[in-house]
Structures are given as structure tokens and as C-alpha cells.
UniProtKB/TrEMBL annotation:
One of its GO terms (cellular component) is plasma membrane. InterPro entries: Cell_Envelope_Assoc, DUF218, Rossmann-like_a/b/a_fold. This is DUF218 domain-containing protein. It comes from Aquipseudomonas alcaligenes (strain ATCC 14909 / DSM 50342 / CCUG 1425 / JCM 20561 / NBRC 14159 / NCIMB 9945 / NCTC 10367 / 1577). Residues 4-100 form the DUF218 domain. The lineage of its organism: Bacteria, Pseudomonadati, Pseudomonadota, Gammaproteobacteria, Pseudomonadales. Coiled coil: none annotated. It comes from the Bacteria. PANTHER family: DUF218 DOMAIN-CONTAINING PROTEIN, INNER MEMBRANE PROTEIN, PROBABLE PERMEASE.
Length: 132
């Protein structure tokens, strides 16, 4: 592993950005701090990947593994490809959505946003790699 790129901004009511919380966890797990890159401005998947692309370019990285919930992976991979990231899927082995009560709404959410992105994409509108 060259770098671990952690993405995610601060949600409504959050005191810390997702990327910073993940960074603290990675440091505690033994990942060297100089190998962790973070961006903490993004709030949606397209922004996460756009900002990650900028960091990749800045550090000369050619490819990445995308680690995400299995229900989210298809949309994340399509967005990454459209942004210009050569990505490999690495879905998490478990999901926070364990029952149909929690899985159903998440699946509906992902389906809605995946189809919405396909519609937007058909109009030629795609996210771009952030300036690195």
C-alpha cells in the first residue's frame, strides 16, 4: 500500500469530519501517519471520489482500491471510472445493513441514486477530478 486515502466531510450535527474519524482509527490500527491522505470537504460519493482523484494525481498514484459497503459499490465504481480513477472494488465483508428492515431503505436509496446518476450521465454530465 502506498497511501490510504480517507474521504468524507462533516455531516449536519457532526463535530468531526468522517475522514478525520477514519484517520484516527487508521492511526490506532498502526497505519503510519505519513501514508494517510485525507480530504474532509466532500459530502456525497461523487465529491469523495473527485477529491480522492485530485489527491491521487498530486501523489502520482495510478490506481486505487475502493472500500465501501457492498450495496454502495456499484455506484462508487461507476463514478470512479467516469472521474478517471482506475479502481478495483474491495467491498467490505460485512455491512451495517444486516436485516431487511435496514437493508431495504438502503437498497432503495442506492438504486435511486444509481439510476439518477445514469440519467445525468446520459446527458453528458459527469463529475470531474478535483485539482490536485
Amino acid at each position: 500500500m502506498d497511501y490510504l486515502i480517507l474521504t468524507g466531510g462533516r455531516g449536519e450535527g457532526d463535530t468531526q469530519a468522517e475522514a478525520e474519524v477514519a484517520r484516527q482509527y487508521a492511526l490506532q490500527a498502526g497505519v503510519p501517519g505519513e501514508r494517510i491522505l485525507t480530504e474532509s470537504v466532500s459530502t456525497i460519493t461523487a465529491e469523495n471520489l473527485s477529491e480522492a482523484c485530485g489527491l491521487m494525481r498530486q501523489h502520482g498514484l495510478q490506481s486505487a482500491f475502493i472500500v465501501s459497503d457492498p450495496l454502495h459499490m456499484q455506484r462508487a465504481m461507476l463514478l470512479a471510472r467516469d472521474i478517471g480513477i482506475r479502481a478495483h472494488a474491495a467491498p467490505t465483508p460485512t455491512s451495517r445493513y444486516r436485516s431487511w428492515k435496514s437493508k431495504g431503505p438502503s437498497l432503495a436509496y442506492e438504486t435511486f441514486f444509481y439510476l439518477s446518476y445514469l440519467a445525468t450521465r446520459s446527458l453528458g454530465l459527469r463529475p470531474q477530478c478535483a485539482a490536485g
